[in-house]
User: What shape does this take?
Amino acid sequence: MRPDTPADHITEAERLLRTAAQYPEDHEPLFLQAAAHLELAGDRARAATLYDELLGSSGTGVENPHLVKALKAANLWEYGHEAEARAIIEGIRTARPAEATPWEIAAETLEAHDELEAAHDLFSTALTLLITPGEEVPYATQSLLTGRHRVRRLMGVSHDAWDELADTLHTAAVPLDELHDPKRLWSLGSSDPGELRAEITRLRAELGTYRTALSRPFPVAVLHWPEDELRELLAGYPELAQEYHSHADHLARLEAALRDLHAAGTPNLGIVTGTVPSYEAFAASEAASPSDPDLLPQYATVLAARGRAVPWPPARAAECWCGSGRTYRECHGVA
Assistant: This one.
């Protein structure tokens, strides 16, 4: 059941924290989900404590420190700690993370507090860093283009090349110019029944476009085994050899499966990496045998639900998902 009241959000946060204690290897995404529920419940001080606990005194041992810092900044600003939030956002700019999400959260925090010029500058800085001219824009980076388009629409400035690219990548029925029209906000507050009905019709059209994506809270994830883990898995459970003929074949089939899903229009694709101890623990929790091949997709789904999925495809200039150390375009991204 989806939480709807502060009490529901507190309950869900507590459940996530108990899960984090049970699965310490997944504590970071679970803490972040718990912090989000605490914010929705209005307990922003406790959410800040969770962010601080993740970062620690030095920020070491955190897989996504810039993401945690961006979320912390957004939370701090909402309950009166503007100066500290600004300092964190400036720190993110200086660090120049290679992931899109921290930039997006930081820029949207500025936008939410009417700092449009600062938000525009942050979106632009991120895009300059993350977009390689002539290459496909990674899915995660597209939201930066959309956010920058929205801010520029609010600022009343003319379209530029990045706005045109955002329009090209936008696939919903409602164009970005209409979606980001400031007058839409006015119509939502209008007392004219005709204007309200028209806006409701537009919102329903947008909801229909995103309904499928919204129904998938976790990525559609496929299971990846590093070479040493696959060797250990097959040594312990030789029955699974029918699923994995060789490590190279496993990697090739994984990439092919993701490309087929992408070609079929499946959104939000990801890769989860398995380990034998984790897989055995999952099998025990399900009272099933690790040698059962039907357990493998269930294991992948649980890893994705714990926030372990890495978005696919990576940027072509980024390191390949397989761990070879080569760029994606030089490895499994070869056309």
In short: The beta strands are 220-224, 269-273, 310-311. The chain has three domains: 6-178, 181-215, 220-330.
